[in-house]
Structure formats: C-alpha cells, structure tokens
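Summarise what follows for lecture notes:
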Amino acid sequence: MLEKDKELIPCPSFVSVVTGGFMMGVLIWIVIYLLFLIGFAGIVYPIIPTIVFVLLAFVIYGLFFGITDLPLLFWFIQGFLLLALLTVDYLANLIGIKKHGGTNAAIWGSTIGLLIGPFIIPIIGIVIGPFIGAIAAELLIRRKPFVEAIRVGVGSLIGFLGGALVKGIILIVIVFYFSITVF
C-alpha cells in the first residue's frame, strides 16, 4: 500500500499501522460487539461469566484503539454498572426467596439448580433448575411442608427472572453508554 493511501483509511492510526487497515478495524469492532453479545447470553446462562466478556471487550478496545481518549467519568460509570451487574444476581435470588419464606438452604439449592438445570434439561432447565433446587432444599434440609416449599420455589423463580431482567437492562446501558462514548 502506498504511503498516500494510508492517510485515506478512516480508522485509528494504531489499527492502520499494526493491523493493516480499515477491514481489520472493522473486524476488531465485530469482535468487541460479539463479546458484548456473549455477555448477554450470560444473563440467562450462568455458566457464561457476563462481566468477564464485558471486561474483555473493554480490554480489546483499549489495546487497539487506546483508552486515553475516554474520560475518567466513563470508567467510574462503567465500574459502577459492572459492580451492579455483579450484585444483582445474588440480591435478586436472595430477595425472591426470602420474601417467600425461604432459608439459606433454598438459596443454595436454587443456585445449584441454576448451574445444573441447563445440563439436565437443556434450555428449560435454566428456569426449572432454580425452582426445583429451592424446593428440594426446603423439603430435604429444612423439612418444610410441600406447599411452603413450592412457595419458596416460586420466589426463586421470580428472583431469577427479575434478576435477569435487571441484568439485561444494566448490560444494555453499559453497551449503549460505551457506544455513544466511543463513537
């Protein structure tokens, strides 16, 4: 490529020099947004660490485009949102279970059900796993009556779905704020 042609490439100079031009810059953006997309999958599939993929997207952006142009306020807001994303899962499950009369055993049962459920019953196990896990824990460990255990299971389900909704909203805000800041 001629020296005069390099000036016409509409992408950051670091990407032009190191990676070979505009198409590589586009590929990097695709990778960044694919990482965000994988993060969205982690909202309902807990084995996928949402925060890790969001952070990886930020790291890749920083490596290829630099982070010095991003204001400090951006990093504070993103850090706060990531912290919120981290705590929502636990708090939503805790509130859902406790509000319906559940114990710590139900929280553990729900968490185990959430992790194991998708492997036993693909797709629907994501929803049924925490429900069954909370019920089983209340029945087997706390020896609660079946009707009370079902109520706790419903609380776990409400907590999981509510948490997924809140996590989805937070992740949309993270990606949106990132996008409007870098473009």
User: Anything to note?
Assistant: Residues 146-182 form the longest helix (37 residues). Helices lie at 3-6, 13-19, 22-44, 50-65, 72-99, 104-120, 125-140, 146-182.
